[in-house]
Amino acid sequence: MSQGLVPRGLIVAALLLWGAAAPLLGQRQVGDTVERVIAVVGYTPILSSEIDEEIFARFPQGKGLPDTPDGMKALRRQMLQELIDLELLFQRAQSDTTVKVTEEQVNAAVDEQVRNVRQKYPSDKEFRDDLKVSGFQTPEEYRRWLTDKQRRQLVTNMFVEHLKSGGEKDSKLKPVIPTDKEMRAYYEEQKGQQKRPETISFRQIVIAPQPTAEAKARARALADSILIGLRKGDDFAAAAKRFSMDPGSREQGGSLGWFRRGVMHPAFEQVAFNLRPGFISDPVETPFGYHLIQVERVQPAEVSARHVLIMPDIRQQDADSARALAERVRDAISNGASFDSLQRKLNDPLEERDIKDFPTDKLLPAYGVALKGFGDKALPPVFRLESPDPVRAKWVVVEIRELKAAGEYRYEDVKDAIRGKLGEQLALRRYIDKLRAATYVEIRGP
């Protein structure tokens, strides 16, 4: 029996591909070539060519490969150990009847992998040439090989997720809490692989234009009149296409698809999750306006529904009032008023209050322009958020808390993330070691 080596940084969801089963345990005949078996897991051989295939999959055009013989030997040993681990998991997954993978899932994974590999080559010729060097005569042959690998990968990943949820009796992944020494060692190994982008932390008060009482009354009256027609038999989807002011669902007849709790506004969910299929709700008020809701189907913990949204009119003077209020709020804060108090009172409930360590290059354009050039503790000028309807645009007061320059992640920045990730890896490592102890594993080659 072999002694298993622990491959560093093993995360099953990120593992690429592994070898297929073959009927022989010594050598395998492929065309005029005899391939050497370098390991056996149970009754399944792992071939030397499978490591070559791994090298192509992971290092297209050889970019990133070790540049010394010792480095290449170490890489091949690591790949072999990963192939053994994954074969152990796959064999165990095959006995779990709850793990099912569809051909659609396999084909989608193959398409994505082929795209990812192909885009690393400047031309189709270079792609085909590298395929031949790796043993694939055509892209179609590569795709057939990849299909089997991706099917095995999906099965194994699904099985591991099943283990995490406690699906396998008496052998689920039990949590492992890593020591601080293990976490720091993991950090030292990984820290050069990913750089921290420039990030910003800030808090904000987002002020939305408010409709007048008269505008709300008109919107409610329209919602009531639509409801009367629906309860007399009008088609809900047709009414949504005609009246709804939700651009995201109007053309789909108001369809919101399936959703769980915590996705929609609480007032909307309170009604949707208590409405019987086919029934239509009274108008439901949220910050967006008035909703008529029809639940189509119900499953445990989720519903499929349609809605018609009627929004109260917003006038230009309502928009001007929102901007003026935002300016007064900023002036008050700059003169010492409590940001927290004003935020609790005025912030739009649909908008986040505090944003921490957000990459500056991923800010929405309005934020990127407005906050550029300001540092810690700054209070930039009031700015407007993008909106398809300018009079409904919201106005933002921001206080920048901290701006972090790009660079390496500090241990303190990633400690919590490492604890969770490494804990999962150690739990999986322990489970694989149990499989390995109970399975015939023989390593025959370097």
Topology:
Elements: E1 27-30, E2 33-41, E3 44-47, H1 48-58, H2 69-93, H3 103-118, H4 124-133, H5 139-164, H6 180-190, E4 195-196, E5 199-207, H7 213-231, H8 236-243, E6 255-260, H9 266-272, E7 284-286, E8 289-299, E9 302-310, H10 316-334, H11 339-346, E10 354-359, H12 365-371, E11 383-384, E12 395-404, E13 407-408, H13 411-437, E14 441-443
Antiparallel strand pairs: 1-2, 2-3, 2-14, 4-13, 5-10, 5-12, 6-9, 7-8, 8-9, 11-12
Helix pairs in contact: 2-5, 3-5, 6-13
Characterization of the model:
By secondary structure, this protein is an alpha+beta fold. It has three domains: 12-173 and 423-443, Porin chaperone SurA, peptide-binding domain (Triger factor/SurA peptide-binding fold), CATH 1.10.4030.10; 199-210 and 315-404, Chitinase A, domain 3, CATH 3.10.50; 213-310, Chitinase A, domain 3, CATH 3.10.50.40. It is 43% helix and 18% strand. The protein has 13 helices and 14 strands. Strands 1, 2, 3 and 14 form a four-stranded antiparallel beta sheet that branches. Helix 2 packs across helix 5, helix 3 packs across helix 5 and helix 6 (180-190) packs across helix 13 (411-437). The chain is globular. The relative contact order is 0.14.
Offer a concise description of the structure.
The protein is 43% helix and 18% strand.
